[in-house]
Amino acid sequence: MANPFNLVESCIRDVSMGENVTIVSPCNIYECQIGSNSFIGPFTEIQKGVVIGERCKIQSHSFICSLVQIGHDCFIGHGVMFVNDLFANGGPVNDATKWKATNIADHVSIGSNATILPVQICSHVVIGAGAVVSKDITEPGVYAGNPAIKLR
Amino acid sequence: MANPFNLVESCIRDVSMGENVTIVSPCNIYECQIGSNSFIGPFTEIQKGVVIGERCKIQSHSFICSLVQIGHDCFIGHGVMFVNDLFANGGPVNDATKWKATNIADHVSIGSNATILPVQICSHVVIGAGAVVSKDITEPGVYAGNPAIKLR
Amino acid sequence: MANPFNLVESCIRDVSMGENVTIVSPCNIYECQIGSNSFIGPFTEIQKGVVIGERCKIQSHSFICSLVQIGHDCFIGHGVMFVNDLFANGGPVNDATKWKATNIADHVSIGSNATILPVQICSHVVIGAGAVVSKDITEPGVYAGNPAIKLR
Description:
The structure is a homotrimer of 152-residue chains.
Chain A: E1 6-9, E2 12-13, E3 16-17, E4 22-25, E5 28-30, E6 33-34, E7 39-40, E8 45-46, E9 51-52, E10 57-58, E11 63-64, E12 68-70, E13 75-76, E14 81-82, E15 102-104, E16 109-110, E17 115-116, E18 120-121, E19 125-127, E20 132-133, E21 141-144, E22 149-150
Parallel strand pairs in A: 2-5, 3-6, 4-7, 5-8, 6-9, 7-10, 8-11, 9-12, 10-13, 12-15, 13-16, 14-17, 15-18, 16-19, 17-20, 19-21
Antiparallel strand pairs in A: 21-22
């Protein structure tokens, strides 16, 4: 091994929790808010500034980036990835003030392996497994595909 | 931190194993069956009631939910997600008797990042990487895309 | 539990590192090279023989398989999966000499949940989140979809 390296351990730190939150480790969750009676599965990463409402389930392998806000009674499936950087200039933007926000309202269910670009999603929406959501969703319904379109 | 929370550690417990099973930790595997000479990679979750046959490889980052049965000599790629709840009433169904089963026969290979909805897949099928399988597959062949269709 | 099993722990071993590399554990990284000032997120697996250049970010939940070479200043998003085995004969190929290589040049950014089959990607390319890249990319630009096509 040519050089030493900086080893950082995943952790749960500086999280503002409601009552009766359950978290399955290992996970990497920091400087965010999680509402009462929510559940967070293993192998998840939740970044600084994220807000998650009450009675949500965030399933294993999901990644929730900064600038994502999730309402109450939401279900985020396994392997769901949120995005806040659209690589607008051809690559990652280091200036966090240029990242884009995502707002998920209440009673939204997102299927496993879905990818959520920076969008607004209204209440009572279902996103199919494997979908890629690249535009705002303003009507309740079921959306799926890449890019996601309304099914019904 | 406003409140204490329930911390659950990922584990390997109550698994009925055949001979010579290899598992790479950390993973979260419970109340399921794994056949002889099978391999389970790291960062996997395998839920209660899952049955995995002999000589299978379940690669890293995969999630196998309750009601999935996998035959012998199957390969489940990295980041493959199985689904048992179709959110039929617009959100997660808490009544497990209404979840749907998936049966994977023998010699089935599923590419990485694929998503498998509740389906039947016959023997000697290849699912391409990144595919979303939403319908039963009853003929051997190669299937890919979102939704997956037969390529050859 | 019917039988004992082989428990292997994820680790960081036999990695040739440049200076000032940061790694967030847990991860499973072995027998590979990581260039100076690169960052590796948690829940990643990087296999034997992989070469990663300088100033790269490999985000959480990504899997980088043997025969992948990544240049300098690249960004690999969360949940990105690389593939080296095309299941050419209807299933996994055990003979590693028949696996296929992937070469990623410099300044390439790959969005979260993308899947990268064995391809060549030239410099200054952006791959959209959730894309499935199945063909070589020889012109700078933005590519997305399943299969990925050039957007602009």
